[in-house]
Amino acid sequence: MDGTIAQVISRSGCSSGGSIQALLLAKGLKSEGENVVFVSRGGECAARAEELGIDHVTQSMIWSIPSILSFVRMVRQRRITVLHAHKGKALSFSLLASLLCGNVKVFANRGVSFSLSWSNVWKYRLPLTKGIVCVSFGIKRDLCMRWVQPERVFTVYGSLDERFFRSPPKQKTRQELGLKEGFYVCLVGNFRPWKGHVILAEAFKKLASRVDGCLLLFAGKEKASILQKVSSLVGECVVSLGYRRDVERVMGASDVLVNASTEGEGVPGVIREAMACGVPVVVSSLEGNLEMVRHGKNGLVFPVGDIEALFKRLVLLWKSPRLRRRLGVNGSCFAKRFTISRRAKIMLKLYRYA
């Protein structure tokens, strides 16, 4: 494309799926020979962009005249023709820049199914927003039913970093992480109420009362109140590693990965990542999860919030190493379709023709 494509996120931290997917998209576009810049508030986002060899620009993106003018000046100086915004404030700044600069296409990313606030609805409806990129068909349908014209809404799934297909052997990884032997049930995700840590702990408690050597493994930014609740349920059977950048090793050390989310998810990247690592997945029946997992083929599904059903899925996998292997192999084959290159090519078509 002529000019530069900017991936814009109005944060400095880089622990969420949205930030990581924005970085991976920038990486993929650069690999396709495009001029790409990653725009954020600096911090960890800047460091990660540098590691990937992606040009980075730090912008404060606070509501002030100097900050707005600085953003607009950056768009002009960098000859940016596409602004792909990954958060609400990033979209606001991108729309202002498009209005003031002209000839700049703005795209919005939509990665969650939470209801839109009044302050965000109008930004999706503006003609300046050329396209809304949803990470699942469920999110697209919801937007089209309530907020936006269908012709401006597209579904593009997230991508996978290649390292997830190269996870080291389980035994070696457990030794490196200092984990003892056992049957590990893993949940990767920041500690948030809707992520289902407590639901998993309730089901795991039933499992641990019947099966010796079971351990619950968490990786993600901790929240004391949730971790305390989990600990009160399962005691010393829980291992929390905190936020990790090597989640492929955590997954590789696990026997099962669970996504027990109750709301808000589009398509959690951890499901694809665990599949790529060859780890069987058990997921709640949220619509986005069902777009990834076919029950009994590349994973197992349980009704949202159903502790007894989740417990039964875990027992089934504990009893059957053969089933774990089959689901892991099928999941790994399924995950191969979510390459960085494939996503970048799809996005380039949208940037050109939307």
Helices and strands in order, then pairings?
Elements: E1 4-8, H1 17-31, E2 36-40, H2 43-51, E3 55-58, H3 65-77, E4 80-85, H4 88-101, E5 105-110, H5 118-125, E6 129-134, H6 137-146, E7 153-155, H7 170-177, E8 183-188, H8 197-208, E9 214-219, H9 224-234, E10 238-240, H10 247-252, E11 256-259, H11 269-276, E12 281-284, H12 287-290, E13 300-302, H13 307-319, H14 321-335, H15 340-353
Parallel strand pairs: 1-2, 1-4, 2-3, 4-5, 5-6, 6-7, 8-9, 8-11, 9-10, 11-12, 12-13
Description:
Helices cover 45% and strands 17% of the residues. The chain is an alpha/beta fold and 354 residues long. It folds into two domains: 4-159 and 339-353, Glycogen Phosphorylase B (Rossmann fold), CATH 3.40.50.2000; 162-335, Glycogen Phosphorylase B (Rossmann fold), CATH 3.40.50.2000. The chain has a seven-stranded parallel β-sheet with strand order 3-2-1-4-5-6-7, sandwiched between helices. The protein has a six-stranded parallel β-sheet with strand order 10-9-8-11-12-13, sandwiched between helices. Strand 2 (36-40), helix 2 (43-51) and strand 3 (55-58) form a beta-alpha-beta unit. Helix 1 crosses helix 15 (340-353) and helix 3 (65-77) crosses helix 4. It is elongated and about 65 Å long. The two termini are 13 Å apart. The model has no long low-confidence stretch (mean pLDDT 94).
